[in-house]
Amino acid sequence: MQAFDCAIIGAGPAGMAAAIALAKGGANVAVLDRGARVGGQIYRAAAASPLPDASVLGPDYTAGAALIAEFNRAEITRFTGADAWHLGDDGRVLFSHLGDTHELHCREMLLCPGAMERPMPIPGWTLPGVMTVGAAQVMLKSDATVADGAVFAGSGPLLYLIVAQYLRLGVPVAALVDTTPRQNYLNAVPLLPGALRQAGQLKKGLALLREIRAAGIPQYRFAEGLEILGEDKAEGLRFTANGQPYEIASETVFLHHGVQPNLNMTRAMDLAHRWNPQQLCWQVEADAWGQTSVPHVSAAGDGAGIIGAEGARIAGDLAALNILHRLGHLSEGERDRQTAPGSARLAAMAPFRAFLDRLYRPAGAFRLPQNPETLVCRCEEQSLANLRAGFNQGARDPNALKSLTRCGMGPCQGRQCGHMVTGLLAEWQAEPPEAVGYYRLRSPQRLLTLEELSRFQAVPAPAQAEAAE
To answer: What Rg do the C-alpha atoms of the chain give, in angstroms?
Structure first.
């Protein structure tokens, strides 16, 4: 079994930045990532884009190539295509790689699982041909694959970015259906002065909107009542906008309504979590350096709270410097001195993030299903009506509802339905989400075949082996 000073799970912006800082500080670092190549979602294939000109994806994307190059040059042990499925309190990490289970041990652990898109459970959202905007970006960045004549529906910066990227590539777009509520603009006004301190970010967002408007594609604002058309596959989108009904024919509908932390890794470790009322999601409790409720476990990046790619890189640096202090490589004073610029930068970015959270706060009708027949748990095919029946039988928390309905027991282990179940139970009981809670998760955190598990023989961790001797 290999032993490291620190194991980092996830090689997106936060994980790569942290690994570089730890290696520079003299730590022995291992990085595990599910992808065949590092970069995470935001920097996916940034160092080897299949597009003839990757600049069409924007400077935020192409900036990732330099980070990936620096990461590849650093003295780091890398495990790509590695799926971590058990993270132990004893520093043990079990992961699948090339069909076998492997084991390593670490003194410190840094979790960088990133974000996932918030489900948008409108009628028909599970039909073939309906995908997320994140899926559109994966196809574009990984394989230069696009969907001609697609409808893009939802709200938030990522929605506008992918539409602009399609337009730069000359790909026809059927329509942009914007669901941002009118009231959100009014609610965000008080936060605008703080956001103006990040004028560059505001200009970037306004430029995207102008680019889309100049392209002349049909745009619909303040859309409500979205419904996918079709019986066996997507055939279009039905909605109302400003009181007028519309139907747009398309075989592909991309949905987006913001992102939320990917919780399964932090939940399976039983780390303390809190409800974020601004972003309407759970997130792991962590201090300014990413330190969680378990002493040797830290978290950074969007997996610890949505802060964007630049914020994730800074958070990775801060977590790494704190880990170097815990490992004895930095004094407390030196840690504080080196983390001061990054902490100040994150503090300066916070007002703009608060503005975005308020402006693109997901409407309840798109965050929680409204139609009784709409599926909530895709894995176990449990509808809103099925969950309501379980609630009526006495299930008052997510785990009780899981026991009665199997909602959350499927291959995704609640990644898709977890926040929806919390929200529905909170609504039905007129309780705050923090009073309802979330699923109780355990290892393995990912699908694992019995054949692979049968071939694994556990090796004692270093401290345990010494004790045994």
So the answer is: 22
What share of the chain has pLDDT > 70, as a percent?
97
pLDDT, tens digit (0-9, with 9 covering 90-100), for 231-266: 999 999 999 999 999 999 999 999 999 999 999 999
Q: Give yes or no: residues 204 and 282 share one domain.
A: no
Alpha helices for 119-179 (secondary structure H): 133-143, 157-168
Please state, rounded to an integer, the average pLDDT across all residues of the chain: 93
| CA–CA distances in Å: residue 197 to residues 60, 75, 186, 308 | 19, 38, 19, 17
Both 18 and 6 in one domain: the answer is yes
246 and 129 in a single domain? The answer is yes
Say yes or no: 18 and 109 in one domain: yes
Q: What is the pLDDT of residue 463?
A: 43
Torsions phi, psi for 353 (to 5 deg): -65, -40
Closest CA to 257 of 416, 120, 374, 420: 120
Helix axes 308-326, 13-24, angle to 10 degrees: 30
The total number of structural domains that make up the chain: 3
Checking if the pLDDT of 194 tops 90, the result is: yes
Give the DSSP letter of residue 291: B
Assigned domain for 303 exists: yes
Dihedral (C-alpha) 367, 368, 372, 375: value to the nearest 10 degrees? Answer: 70
